């Protein structure tokens, strides 16, 4: 089976009703990244950080996967599909995708601040005073700015082994995630679905890039139909 790696960002979930970060009225227009998504912000005001993620988690429980997520599940019936997402929502999993790697963590999980290997399912608000089994404060299981990306090496290996790479709904600005496409073997077909595609340094070097300036719902559905029609070629 041909291997397809799908690199997704916030635009993948936009049509499900989840705000992106850098579009107009995006999350970073209404919140200070360093206050709500950094270890320094956590040290300064953990309650503010907890409320930022509590609000996003409450919203996540109200939304559903969109046509783009469902099209990728269709793709998995005929290709070995590995999804590597920057998103912390679980919409890929809820749509039925089986192989999902979260580079930046998962909103529906919490973890111990003192014992980071202690990770728990979390569908409720996290409060100051909520502790892990060893008595340490719980935090969102999210990779904050300045923290390492534990799944990066695994993700790079998958891109290196890919026969086809799809990129959906990311502004290609945040490294190391934005550099992953650079691990693709030269000549690997790259498809980039985004209404405002951002051709970063790595994409500029890709010889076999096809850009589809469309939203994920329609664009990914069209792309999946094309890949399925040509799957035996
Ligand atoms: N369909 C597809 N793409 C869309 C849609 C849509 N309906 N709506 C917006 N987009 C695109 C935008 O054009 C933009 O390129 O989604 C992208 C969103 O970019 P960002 O908001 O920067 O989100 P992302 O690239 O995922 O951010 C990366 O930055 O803040 C950190 O950790 C956070 O994982 C996040 C990382």
Indicate the topology.
Elements: E1 3-8, H1 11-14, H2 27-30, H3 33-36, H4 39-44, H5 46-60, H6 67-75, E2 80-85, H7 91-95, E3 100-102, E4 105-112, E5 119-121, E6 138-142, H8 152-161, E7 164-168, E8 190-193, H9 201-204, E9 209-212, H10 216-229
Parallel strand pairs: 1-2, 1-7, 2-3, 7-8, 8-9
Antiparallel strand pairs: 4-5, 4-6
The structure holds adenosine-5-diphosphoribose (APR).
Residues 9-11, 14-15, 20-23, 26, 86, 104, 169-171, 173-174, 194-196, 198, 215-216 line the site of adenosine-5-diphosphoribose (APR).
Low-confidence stretches: none
General shape:
elongated
By helix and strand content, what is the structural category?
alpha/beta
Distance between the termini: 12 Å
**How many domains, in number, for the residues?**
2
Strand tally:
9
| CATH superfamily annotation of the largest domain | TPP-binding domain
- Note the beta-strand portion: 15-25%
Rounded to an integer in angstroms, the radius of gyration calculated over CA atoms is 18 Å
Tell me the name of the CATH class of the largest domain: Alpha Beta
Mean pLDDT across every amino acid position: 97
The number of helices is: 10
Give the strand order, joined by hyphens, for the main sheet.
3-2-1-7-8-9
Give a list of the ligands.
adenosine-5-diphosphoribose
Q: Report the CATH architecture of the largest domain.
A: 3-Layer(aba) Sandwich
- Succession of helices and strands: EHHHHHHEHEEEEHEEHEH
